Amino acid sequence: MATGARWATITAMTTITGIRIRMARMTTIDDLHLVQWLSPAFPIGSFAYSQGLETAIVDGEVRDAASLADWVGNVLVHGSGRADAILLAAARRPDADLTRLSDLALAYATSAERATEMQEQGRAFLAQIRPITGRDLPDMPLAVAVGAATAGLSVPTEGVLALWLHGLAAQLVQAGVRFIPLGQSAGQAILSGLATDIVALAQEAAGLGPEDIGATTIGADLAAMRHETLNVRIFRS
């Protein structure tokens, strides 16, 4: 190989390697942004909401680790977790109608407290995100807000949904740990046990649309409604 051709090949390989390194670095940064935004430590007040779980604990329906695991798993797979995951996935798509999705999210809320939870957490999330991203997104319910905010990240929708659902599961499990009460080890065991369901739902919801939203968690929905009239409440939903 002639010297000029050899140097051209080396230069091309160096350029390609540099592009790959930069792409890998961008992906890593986006992954870290996602973990930060969906962390329980992100200041949106998720610790204050139980989505009706407090009512179920007061009634004695959820009273130990096994019943808490069943409750949270059903909410994730058959209730608000699935519905919000579908809305989040839809909000990440290039042709997303964010106003329509926001209206749908609120229409599907099963109680006034749930609607307030969606709106207040969405507002708090976007208040933190706007200075970070420079995008002036309007206030939206949380699931739609997360979808819109993460649309520009080079992270597959399945990955976003898995972290989102894991965060929701952690929120509800911690509510149970605090109010039943349970030990932290029991809470972590419950969360680990939900991993398979979380991954499966993330993969499914990534390919679904708003027309696929539905729920069969009537007990959880009624508990969320009745929470509004509890005499003493620790949580806001």
- Cα-to-Cα separation, first versus last residue: 72 Å
Strand content: under 5%
The number of distinct structural domains comes to 1
Specify the structural class. mainly alpha
Number of helices: 11
* Helicity, as a percent range: 55-70%
How does the overall form come out from the CA principal axes?
A: globular
Radius of gyration: 21 Å
At the fourth level of CATH, the homologous superfamily is Urease accessory protein UreF
CATH topology: Urease accessory protein UreF
Largest sheet: none
Unreliable parts: 3-26
Pfam families: UreF (PF01730)
GO molecular function: nickel cation binding
Protein name: Urease accessory protein UreF
Keywords: Chaperone, Cytoplasm, Nickel insertion
In short:
This protein has eleven helices and no strands. It is an all-alpha fold and 237 residues long.
Q: Can you walk through the features of this model?
A:
It is built from 11 helices and no strands. It is mainly alpha-helical and 237 residues long. The chain has one domain: Urease accessory protein UreF (Orthogonal Bundle), CATH 1.10.4190.10. The radius of gyration is 21 Å and the shape is globular. The N terminus is likely disordered.
What are the defining features of this structure?
237 residues, mainly alpha, Urease accessory protein UreF, disordered N terminus
